[in-house]
Amino acid sequence: MNPQKIARVFGWLFIATFVTSIAARLLFVSGLGGTWSTLDFTVGAISDTRIQLGALFEVGLIVTNIGTAVVLYPIMKLHSEIGAVGYVTARIVECTFILVGLISLL
């Protein structure tokens, strides 16, 4: 595959990780009754719709995180196979932590 095409797909996936993570954060904060400056939990002010939509964005974050690692692997393997496997492993571990936090919230 063309390295320029791989880089373009990686760039779009990387941008998608920022979009999904910021959107999820905003929805979780407003869904739990907090504001951006104070993240206090307000009892009884939970919005299930916002929490569920934020969870959907978190799942999108997990998919795009793993996607960035898988797409970048062939290029990184040319320079360092151990580094490429390490990057993929680090992204998978990161996604595992995100999933554990998501499950605990739901």
Question: What can you see in these coordinates?
Answer:
The protein has 106 residues and is mainly α. The chain has one domain. The model has no long low-confidence stretch (mean pLDDT 87).
The low-confidence parts are: none
Structural class: mainly alpha
Domain count: 1
Task: Estimate the global geometry from the Cα principal axes.
Answer: elongated
Percent strand: under 5%
What separation lies between the terminal Cα atoms? Answer: 40 Å
Number of contiguous helices: 3
Order of helices and strands: HHH
Number of strands: 0
- What does the main sheet amount to? none
Report Rg. 17 Å
Which properties best describe this structure?
mainly alpha
Question: What's the short version?
Answer:
With 106 residues, the chain is an all-alpha fold. The protein has helices at residues 3-31, 48-79, 81-105.
